[in-house]
Amino acid sequence: MPHVLVLNASYEPLGVVSMRRALILVLNNKAVSLEDSGITMHSATSVVTAPSVVRLTRFVRVPFRGPVPLTRRALFARDNGRCVYCGAAATSVDHVVPRSRGGQHRWDNVVAACRHCNHVKSDRHLSELGWRMKRPPAPPTGLAWRIIGTGHRDPRWRPYLEPYGGREQLGESDHTDHIGHHGQPPVPLDRSPQGRTLHDRRGQPAQQLSA
Questions:
Q1: Measured between alpha carbons, how far is 75 from 82 in angstroms, rounded to an integer?
Q2: What is the pLDDT of residues 184-208, one digit of tens each?
Q3: On the CB side of 154, how many CA atoms lie within 13 Å of its CA?
Q4: Mean pLDDT throughout 141-170?
Q5: Whose CA is closest to 5, among 148, 141, 142, 139?
């Protein structure tokens, strides 16, 4: 069942909820539908069009929640689903500074990689291989990343999320059709397409809306 984007009364993204939860919010006048999903829900006495985007009728104050959680989905979204070394479709997670050499599992040391590059790199530093990256990995910022990191997507959400970060990631619809050049040394990242990270207005992350 598709998920629904929930916006605050101020139009800032809060999180995603199930379609059933979104319908309850709308039917109880706690939210209004801004975009229809095209899916109709039937009850014993009525037919209702399920929403894709809803906005709360009352402003909800969201406390600061810290950095975006580091998950595989969020990491692949940050790196556009591509291997940061060769541009092929990413299938694994790599630590820039290997954990065996003291590297930590955090945003500024983790990147998406294809299986080939991950295997070739192994537990070596980039300098040992002559590889380099255009920019060091960094935590994603912006309210939209609380949504992007869940892995749930809908083209109807894009206009509501773009002002709050992750514009490049929101424009990507399929990351599996990029062909890498396995068997050749990875090209420097400054020759590969890179996305931009935008900052939200208040510098605050959104939170998952509870039922």
A1: 10
A2: 444 433 333 333 333 333 444 433 3
A3: 20
A4: 86
A5: 148
Q: Which residues contact 128 (CB under 8 A, 6 or more apart)?
A: none
- DSSP labels for 82-145? B-TTT-SBP-EEEESS-GGGT--SSGGGEEEE-HHHHHHHTT--HHHHT---SS------STTH
Q: Which residues contact 191 (CB under 8 A, 6 or more apart)?
A: none
Complete DSSP assignment for 32-87 = EEEEEEEEEEE-SS-EEEEEEEEEESS--------SPP--HHHHHHHTTTB-TTT-
Q: Are 145 and 68 in contact (CB under 8 A)?
A: yes
